[in-house]
Amino acid sequence: MAKLTAGESPRVREDVVRRHVPCNLCGSQVRQPYCPENGLGLVQCGNCGFVYVSPRPDAEELYALYGETYFHNNESGVVGYSNYIKDEPNIRRTSQRRLKHLEQFIQPGKLLDVGCATGFFIDEASKRGWQVEGLDVSSFSVRYAQEHFGLTTYHGSLTSLNFEAGAYDAVTMWDVIEHVPDPAAYVRRAAELLRSGGVISLATPDIDSLPARLAGRRWVGYKLSEEHVYYFSVQSLTRMLNDTGFDVVNVRHIGKYVPLSLFRDRLGMYFPWLAKALQVGEKALGLSEWAVYINPFDIVQVTARKR
Ligand SMILES: [Zn+2]
User: Fold this and answer.
1) Distance (Å) from CA 33 to ligand 1 centroid
2) Would you state the pLDDT for residue 10?
3) CATH 3.30.70.20 corresponds to the domain 31-306
4) What's the gap in Å between 41 CA and the centre of ligand 1?
């Protein structure tokens, strides 16, 4: 098993070739800079308004970000997670909440989790009666899910792996669609794999959310440079789902359980003095291991049914 060591944050090299890409939603090549003051190379489609990164590195370079250090590094404010594994109890609690919500629209059956990471979500789903499979571009996390929980997980992207068409009742993608080079192809592929009446549920940062608009260039969604190549809104995600054979059945903004310390770190990006005060309070009261459910109302979950 791979030894866990906190390493350098993974990132795309400066000298990598970057090319312009057409709008993934409507195919237009017309674009203008979007929020240029954050320096991330964001553009907005001149035709449909979709926001994305262009020019940008090719798919191989983007996927290369998700090695072991993605799930364990020193600079999670920039890319990846400081220690995904250590956060397991919170991820499992968050997963239970999401599963309860999903089961309002579809009974437990065959589920494919795209971007399954270390398998905490599908392991919880399996406890609730789902037959689960997962895939991830991180070989480390796929192996971790197999070795620790005996889960069926595959290494690769949704568009490169073979699955049986029409065989799944549910496909989930948590914080995935904004990372992939061709999100429309992912959603089309999910439609192929789902049976008629099957359900897709996705979560992604919402660029049109009130917190995103209020924070402007300081929005935490923008902090994750290079990782996030697409910035969805409810409107663009709904259009993509409609175009690929889905009807949206639910839209809501969701949070997650986080350790108090992470909550403090993120708070520090906006209010350093408040974070400092909280840190002092945590130590005094011994609250460092506590978890809180935080809903910043800037992550949108959209659930849609295949026609
Ligand atoms: Zn467009």
Assistant:
1) 14
2) 52
3) no
4) 16
